[in-house]
Every structure is written in structure tokens, then in C-alpha cells.
Design brief:
The complex is a heterodimer of chains A (about 110) and B (about 120). Chain A is built from no helices and 11 strands. Chain A is about 0% helix and about 55% strand. In chain B, strands 2, 4, 5, 6, 9, 10 and 11 form a 7-stranded mixed sheet that branches. A 4-stranded antiparallel sheet of chain B has the order 1-3-8-7, with no helix packed on it. In chain B, about 0% of the residues lie in helices and about 50% in strands. The chains are: A mainly beta (about 110), B mainly beta (about 120).
Chain lengths: ~110, ~120
Amino acid sequence: AQSVTQLGSHVSVSEGALVLLRCNYSSSVPPYLFWYVQYPNQGLQLLLKYTSAATLVKGINGFEAEFKKSETSFHLTKPSAHMSDAAEYFCAVSESGGSYIPTFGRGTSLIVHP
Amino acid sequence: EAQVTQNPRYLITVTGKKLTVTCSQNMNHEYMSWYRQDPGLGLRQIYYSMNVEVTDKGDVPEGYKVSRKEKRNFPLILESPSPNQTSLYFCASSLSEADLNTGELFFGEGSRLTVL
């Protein structure tokens, strides 16, 4: 069975500071991993994905994530936060060779202070 | 424009009054799904459909029904709504089940339901 844990329901940073949102997964087979972003009053949209190619994945708006198998992690980072990055971020996992239906984490709300 | 459209976007209703939330996609997607989003619980899947006339329960199906008579539509039915179904609901679609692994899951903008 697959599962995702997002550490921290809220993360607060200053504009220009590093953004780090944590995601750990559990999967019995090689996983596919995703980060989705939800801006206020909108649906979720795909930010980036890991599908067994390069372990460092670059997404939209300057975000990137690194797949670390030994740590079962897929943390999301951005070097410099913008006010427009304030949103809810969801990590998700699905299993290659198994059910393709993704399991979502509980979400992390990113707050950006001026 | 490729999109998933949900209606209504906002609804306040009373306990026991049947309601339907519609979902339509214009991308010829086979896979469609309903989620509910609650604070601290994230997204939980209610029902999903791999194709026309094929539906299956997700993690929290109690109190909900769905149907998939046409490829583009996947309505969510609350036969007798209760206050614990107050939530933000999302419909999502993907080209096929296999495409879910590419992360191509498209979401609607959400329907906020309040049951008094």
C-alpha cells in the first residue's frame, strides 16, 4: 500500500527566502511522485513529477524536487520565495505496476511574508 | 479550452434535500474521479470511473452515488445530505488510468457545499 506524509501543515517564509516543503512516501514498489499546487479558490494543478528518470526534477515557477530513495523523500524546494507562491501544496504518490490512482498527502499551506 | 467544469461552485442546502453536483470534461478523458477536501485531511477520493458505465468506490464513498452514462459527464449525487458532508469537492479527469502515472490529472475549480 502507498502513503504520503507531508511534514508541517503550515510553512511560513519571508519573501526571498528558501522554500522547503517536506514529503516522505511509503511504497512497496518503485513509486511515481508528484507535487500539485492549489492557489486560492482554484483546483489543483501539476507542479512537477518524478517518473523514474532524473532524480532531480524541475517544475514550473522555479520549483524543483529531488527523489531520494534511501530517505524515501521527495522534498519540494525553491531558492527564493515570491508572494505569488502562497498556496496549498500537495504531494502525491502512485505505484508503478500497481494501481495508478494517486494517493495525496494532507497538504502544506505555504505562507509568504513581505 | 481544455477544462473540467463543475456546477454549482457554491451551494448551501439543508439536511436530507437531495442534490447533484455536475462534472463535465471536454478532453475525451476515460478516467474521472471525485474528491473531497477537508482541513487537515487533504484530498480523499470518493468514487472514480475508468470508463463509461464503470465506477468504483474510493476511500470515502458512504453517502454518495455516482453515474457514468456518458464519457464526458460524471455527476456526484448526495441522496440525503448530512452536515458531515459539508466540504469542498473536486472533480478530476485523466486521459486513461495509465496516464495517471504521468501526473496528468486535471482538476475542476471545486464546489463548496454546506449542509445545514
